[in-house]
Amino acid sequence: MIHAEGVRKRFGTTEALRGVDLDVPRGSVCGLLGPNGAGKTTMVRVLTTLLRPDGGSARVAGCDVVRDAERLRYRIGLAGQHAALDELLTGRRNLELFGRLYHLPRRTARRRAEELLERFGLTQAANRPVRTYSGGMRRRLDLAASLIVSPPVLFMDEPTTGLDPRSRLALWDVLRRLVAEGTTLLLTTQYLDEADHLADRIAVMDAGRVVAAGSPSALKAKVGGDRVSVAFRDAADLAPGVEAVRGVLPGEPEIDAAERRLVVPVSDGAASLVRVAAALDAAGVGVEDLGLRRPTLDEVFLALTDAPAKEKEAA
Amino acid sequence: MITLEPPATRAQRLRWALSDTFVIAGRSYSQLRTQPGQIAAELVAPVIMTILFGYVFGSAISLPGGGDYRNYLMPGIFMQVMALSAVAAATSVAEDMARGIIDRFRAQPIARAAVLAGRSVADMSKDWLSLATMSVCGLLIAGWRPHSTPLETLAGFALLALFGYAMIWLGTYIGLFVKNGAQADAATFGWLFPMTFLANAFVPLEGLPGWLRAIADWNPMSAVVSAARELFGNPGSAAASWPLQHPVTASLCWSLLIIAVFAPLAVRRYRTAASR
Ligand SMILES: Nc1ncnc2c1ncn2[C@@H]1O[C@H](COP(=O)(O)OP(=O)(O)OP(=O)(O)O)[C@@H](O)[C@H]1O
Ligand SMILES: [Mg+2]
Question: TM segments (chain A) (predicted)?
């Protein structure tokens, strides 16, 4: 549904995109991650015809983003990183205005505005000018505006930034429903749990390139597998504890004496945990905490986006 | 679930383009309604000009060929206000382009020219409102009287409004090159205001030195003022050049030419402005 090859974009001397490849199948959710300035917004703007790429090619819903831009605009919805609203008009007038610009009949536009105000909890503020809205309310109105019609492809640039937890969950819910109905969604986010919850596939960008792509679990596996971590009650428990763990696990434990903790990489997750628990119990060692740790997307993010910087230092 | 299809026929495409234009114009009207002070502020300047020039200069200046100076002056003030509608147009377009809303306009399937055309329609209605206010002030306070048939008088206003519309497109084009409202003001008012004095708006051209007179003779603003004077039956001054001998034709041509040049340029510029 979204297919990009070698997309380049330069602003003066800044190379914002240096050959980005992206492939998002129909009906799936792609999460675009990356540190500030990685080029996520630029990529979204290229794909939504707001920026003309300097090189490479991209197609969205079967339309080329440069040659077929007019037709493409009938097939996409966009919620940009910054709210695109009329500050002077009321929330309701804004939604009606955008609805009318989609050529909805006046009555339909009005009804749709009402529904969306309701869904995004803005009915109370509907008749106030947007200039008086709080940041999160503005954000919600902007998201509502991007959902007036149901385009086959939806782009959302940091949709939940600035939203309170309740609004965030509500938006996830709306998005999940849209995707279930067949919408293809590309979202950028700084919240890795959001990508973890919503995205089928994740592309990690850094300095204008995609540095890794795959399902959330594949990316986590790439950074490292599961680990068993044990914290002992007393310093005296450390030595016999390490001994017991060595007996049941093949991996070499990493020991932090000050924290009275050890961490061992494992391949068979829960089964190893059970073996460690039994061995520690049999050895009669005092244990304060015992658990199986999976790498978080945060760790994936830090590992992946730090690597290029290290390469540069080495070079 | 509402889904969209591109227009199926050329007729539908045209209907949608018109509808987009009026929806955008409607947006400007709604904005004005939320700031009534703004409308008042925009009407104050023309009113002050009318009264100030009418009283202060009206009594002190006498025309070389005879005739009432106030009647000579009013068409000049009308024209000046129409010419300066470029300033408001440039400012509002520049401010709009700097705002986020333009992204939504550009990512939605809106007819290419509609965003600018809609604005121009709204700005034009503001011009009509200023013309109406000024003529009432002229009639009631400054002692201005048209001496022609109502139809001719109306034609005079139509010609002025057409010139105002042309200047709106000129201003729109300039507004697309600057970064904010203040720059837009400088890039339009800075040369348009002096230009209104390099014309026959306030003084007859006879006294000007040769080269300056040539400029003033061919200044589109002079043609507009002469045409308005002719249609209002107000006193004019001797005409030595073609545009001032045929002012109605000349001002029509100038206005249409300005629109024909700057409207397409502005639409093209708008399409590329943000997509560097
Ligand atoms: N209009 C512009 N003019 C000049 N440089 C720009 C422009 N837009 C983006 N850039 C530069 O391009 C690079 C990528 O910016 P982009 O906004 O795509 O990053 P991002 O990944 O969205 O970051 P963030 O997480 O902060 O939103 C940055 O170095 C930025 O400074
Ligand atoms: Mg961004």
Answer: none
**Residues A117 and A126: beta-carbon distance below 8 Å:** yes
Summarize pLDDT for A206-245 with one digit per residue, the tens. Answer: 999 999 899 888 887 776 678 888 888 888 888 888 888 8
Q: Other C-beta atoms within 10 Å of B190: how many?
A: 11
Residue A81 tokens, joined: 């990183």
* ipTM of this complex prediction, to 2 decimal places: 0.85
Chain A residues within an 8 Å CB radius of B30: 88-89, 93
Question: pLDDT tens-digit profile of B92-113?
Answer: 999 888 888 888 998 999 988 9
State whether CATH 3.30.70.100 applies to domain A226-293: yes
pTM of the model: 0.83
Residue in A50, A52, A87 nearest the CB of B107: A50
Strand order in the sheet with A227-232: A254-256, A261-265, A227-232, A287-293
Q: Whose CA is nearest to atom 25 of ligand 1?
A: A36
- B30 Cβ under 8 Å from any chain A Cβ: yes
Same fold, A2-221 and A226-293: no
- Provide, as residue numbers in chain B, all residues whose Cβ is less than 8 Å from the Cβ of A82: 100, 103
Round to whole Å and give the CA distance between A218 and A207. 22
Q: Flag if A98 and B104 touch (Cβ within 8 Å).
A: yes
Per domain, the residue ranges of chain A are: 2-221, 226-293
